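Weekly modeling sync, notes
Attendees: AB, CL, MP (scribe)

Item 1: holo prediction request
CL wants a bound-state model with coenzyme A before deciding which constructs to order. AB pointed out that an apo prediction alone won't tell us much about the pocket. Agreed to run with the ligand included and paste results into these notes for async review.

Input as submitted:
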Amino acid sequence: MRIVPLVERPELVDQVAAWGFAEWGHFNPGQTLQSRTAEIREGMNVDRVPIVLVALDDASAMLGTASLLFDDLEGDPRNPWLASVFVPVGRRGKGVASALVTAIEVAARRLGYPMLYLYTTSASRLYAGLGWRALERRDYRGEHIQVMDKAL
Ligand SMILES: CC(C)(COP(=O)(O)OP(=O)(O)OC[C@H]1O[C@@H](n2cnc3c(N)ncnc32)[C@H](O)[C@@H]1OP(=O)(O)O)[C@@H](O)C(=O)NCCC(=O)NCCS
């Protein structure tokens, strides 16, 4: 497996957007598949946020994705955020998400950020296993979320 910035594989933007819209579209009022796709297409960088990474197998099939965003939790002053970690069902349980999270941490550190934040509704155990610290729990857009951080 290798992890590369999505900007190197722009033909994968539609798939990344489709995964994210199916998983989190309901979380972003007013978002459409088209607007999510456009947002991702405009936000693909290597040396500044936002950064979208994709994991590829030896045949260059996409195994998953994760993003580094400046803001993610509306109204929250902390930044930046690990977001949109997604691995399709058939690829789960093989360490793809762990590798993507680590790659986002490395990218954020390289950009000089001392801390990284995330929120999750369901996967706090995954992040705790990677050294993330649980902060507050709260309700957000109708769901119960866990905010976490990691010193880089
Ligand atoms: C959560 C998700 C990204 C995990 O991907 P994955 O590639 O299977 O994760 P990994 O193989 O790296 O798992 C690493 C560890 O986290 C655990 N883990 C994985 N998914 C988990 C989940 N949803 N909840 C709790 N623990 C989880 C695994 O059991 C594994 O533990 P182990 O090392 O002790 O066996 C994937 O299930 C997914 O895309 N789910 C839908 C989207 C989502 O919930 N994303 C996270 C939102 S913040």
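Recorded for review: The radius of gyration is 14 Å.
Action items: CL to compare against the apo run; MP to circulate these notes.
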